[in-house]
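Local shape tokens:
==================
===
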Amino acid sequence: MKRLLVLLLAAALLTGCGRRETPVATGNQAGVLYRGNASEPESLDPYLVRGAVEWTIVGGLFEGLVVPDMATLEPRPGAAERWEISADGRRYTFFLRADAKWSDGSPVTAGDFEYGARRLLAPRLGASHAENNLFFVRGARDYQAGRSADFGTVGVKARGERTVEMELARPTPFFLSALYLFFPVPRAAVEKHAAMDERVNNWIRPGNLVGNGPFRLKAWRQNQGVVLERNPAYWDAARVRLREIHFLPIENAGAEENMFRAGQLHLTSGVPMSKIEVYQREQPEALKIVDDRGVYFYSLNVAKPPFGDARVRRALALSLDRETLTRQVLKGGKVPAWSFTPPGTGGYTARARLGFDPERARAQLRDAGFPGGQGLPAIELLVDAREQHRVIAEAVQQMWRRELGIEVTLRNEETQVLNASKRSMDFQMVRGSWNATTYQDPFYFLGAWQTTGLYNEARWSSAEFDRLIDATWTVDAAAREAAFQRAEEIFLNEVPAIPLFFSTQTILMQPSVKGWQPRPFADRRLKELWLER
């Protein structure tokens, strides 16, 4: 981070000695966009990435069968020019574009999608988001879990060069949007550097990575940034107006905001909480606030004391004044999360609520054997090192001290280190946030907490909850609604994770950036952006 800032300041000084043009000004002329990206990408492998930092870049390097319409978020043709759905809603047939090509000029084939599915579901690879993309396909869960070693049992098949057929286990109304983040990968490029299911693979490095998106990887220097350039082999290259995009890993929100004001960034990844009202008052046209269909929460590791006891978990959840947290600390349009699923997701709004009830919270702690917090084992909260997460954690820490009389210590880690701690379960309580980056359905939020859920960071298990989530696989809308309502009620009573607020995407944007729309993750559709000279 320090090296990056030194390089940027040096560049600013050099431009100051000559034409005195900022990177934004020169970028506007050259079609080069500079974007803050919060932190160093953990990976650029589309099957191993987890967060917004990586998805923004990967969305420029790869394109799936379908893409979201930026105005409506409805599925639109991507690598597939059209598709057909069987009458029973279980068979999807996609027809690829004849001019779809990889960045090396070779054709994108149906076999590339079949190979991609096999790799995404490979048990040893441990892909981070298979359950949000392909677990709806027949045989996919059993194959990834190792219960079947025959990929022929999985309902993804290449029918010739340009036809991909997918057979679902059950009718899934939101399946097309679940494919937004299912990308093909080129077998030759992947296996040139390592086995298909090897997590460490240099195929994602500059000069090795082959993608099918509107951009290709030009450079990636550790802690200095990622550079994408226009991909001339992309089927719709004529509509791609940006020549390059520079992603700069800036962990410090204050430093990022300073760089924006200095004309070194077109777009930021966030806004310091202390500056939101300033921009609302003094420069509202630069501040963009969008409902990103997300929830911010703390996962509780039920395998570590004291979180094996649901009464302790409930005490922590009920003692938080979310209204004060969102109104006085967070701002930026955040909404208190009294449930886990954002209201209106797929037409669903939870009836169960946590509430702010300090008296009941203290009673829960007392019933668990820790009156006034006495005798309670030490509790540590793990959050990212960025300012926003620290400020939120400190406000919550104070509420727990005031309402329960307990001390929670904070542990700050860089985002990549924190993600590694999550994977190894090296935490008691950890910051989490999910955004409906693909389909708008309550299953996206609640289904992940099933016993076998890949994102079940609490390692919580409830047989009744699992049964109810399984019961949502039906075309009976009323039965689905009832099952989700009861499942959320169980979740909020057991609280394996404490929801804090429903999030918004808050960024700063220069007036020269065009093509952006106030929709969730609009900046990830890099193909649609351009710069006004």
In short: The first strand starts at residue 32 and ends at 36.
